[in-house]
Amino acid sequence: MNVQTIMVIGAGQMGSGIAQVSAQAGFRVYLNDIKQEFVERGLAAITKNLTRNVEKGSISEEEKQAVLSRLMLSTDLADAKDADFVIEAVTENMAIKTQIFSKLDEVCPPHTILASNTSSLPITEIAAVTKRPERVIGMHFMNPVPVMKLVEIIRGLQTADEVYQLTEDLSKQMKKVPVSVNDFPGFVSNRVLMPMINEAIYCVYEGVATPEAIDEVMKLGMNHPMGPLTLADFIGLDTCLYIMEVLHEGFGDSKYRPCPLLRKYVKAGWLGKKSGRGFYVYN
Ligand code: CAA
C-alpha cells in the first residue's frame, strides 16, 4: 500500500504538529477540526514554526511554501474518503474518539488505516467500534511533535502485522523513531512519566519543597530538560489528571491515585500554560 494522503483530526497542539511533520515528509495532508477557526489556528501555528525554521536556515523559503501547499484545511470528516491514513488527535475522551472512528469507518475506503494519537486509552476498545479492527493502531507522538523523536506504536489486540509495518515505515518517513508497545493503560511513556509528575505534585501538596525547588532538583540532578511541574504545565494539567485516572482505573492500584492538589487545580481552571496558570503563571 502506498500512502499519499493523510488526514489529521484535531488541529490543537498535537494535531497541528503531526500535520506539520506529515507535510514535511512529503504527504498531502488534510488538517481537520470541527470549526474553521480551529483549523486556521492550527495552520497559523505550523506557519509560525516553519517561518522560524527558515529564519534559522534549517529550511529554505521554497521548502516552507512547498510544505504549506501540501496542507488542506477541512471541517468535514467526510473528506477522509480521500485519505490512505488517518491520525486522530482529538481530546482524550473515549466517547468522542469512538464516535469519530465509527464515522471514519463508514466514509474511508477499505484500505485506509485508522490511527489514534491517544496518550493512554485502549486501542483495542477504539478498534472495536469499527468493522476493520485489524486496520486500527495507536500512533502516539510526543509534544512538541516537530522536536521529539519518539513515536510509540501500539498494537491493538487485532492489529495486522502489515498495518504495524506500514505505520513504522510512515513514522520513519516523518523522521521519527518508532518503538513498539503493547496495549496497556498509559502504554510505556505515560505509565512511567505520569506517576513521576504526580509524585512531584504530592511534594508540593505535602510541603516538601516549592515547585521551583522540585523542578530544579530534577533538572540539575537528573538532567531532565524541564522539571516535572513545568512539564505538567506544558502538557496540560487536565491531560495529566485524565491519564492518572486512566492508570488508576485500568490497574486498580492505589499507587496511581491522582494527587488531590492536581484535582483542585483542574477544578479551578488552572490547566497550565494553555490557561495562563498552573504551577506557574504565564503571561
Ligand atoms: N514547536 C516546534 N519547535 C520547538 C517548539 C515547539 N513547540 N519548542 C521548541 N522548539 C524547538 C526550538 O525551535 C529549538 O530548535 P533548534 O534547536 O533548531 O533551534 C529546539 O526546539 C530547542 O528549543 P529551545 O532552545 O527554545 O528550548 P529547550 O532547549 O528548552 O527545548 C524542549 C525545548 C524541546 C521543549 C525541551 O525543553 C524538552 O525536551 N522538554 C521536555 C519535553 C517532553 O518531555 N515532552 C514529552 C511530553 S509527554 C507527551 O507529549 C506525551 C503525552 O501523552 C502527555
TrEMBL record:
Binding site for NAD(+): G10, A11, G12, Q13, M14, G15, D33, E92, K97, S119, N143, K274
Keywords: NAD, Oxidoreductase
GO MF annotations in UniProt: NAD+ binding; oxidoreductase activity, acting on the CH-OH group of donors, NAD or NADP as acceptor
Leader peptide range in chain numbering: none
Pfam families: 3HCDH, 3HCDH_N
Domain 3-hydroxyacyl-CoA dehydrogenase NAD binding: 6-183
SUPFAM superfamilies membership: 6-phosphogluconate dehydrogenase C-terminal domain-like, NAD(P)-binding Rossmann-fold domains
Biological process terms in GO annotation: butyrate metabolic process
Highest taxon in the source lineage: Bacteria
Site (Important for catalytic activity): H140
Pathway involvement of the protein, from the record: Lipid metabolism; butanoate metabolism
InterPro entries found in the cross-reference section: 3-OHacyl-CoA_DH, 3-OHacyl-CoA_DH_CS, 3-OHacyl-CoA_DH_NAD-bd, 3HC_DH_C, 6-PGluconate_DH-like_C_sf, 6PGD_dom2, NAD(P)-bd_dom_sf
Annotated ranges, domain 3-hydroxyacyl-CoA dehydrogenase C-terminal: 186-282
Family matches, as NCBIfam families: PRK05808.1, PRK07530.1, PRK07819.1
Assigned protein family: Belongs to the 3-hydroxyacyl-CoA dehydrogenase family.
Protein name: 3-hydroxybutyryl-CoA dehydrogenase
Natural source organism: Brevibacillus centrosporus
Lineage: Bacteria, Bacillati, Bacillota, Bacilli, Bacillales
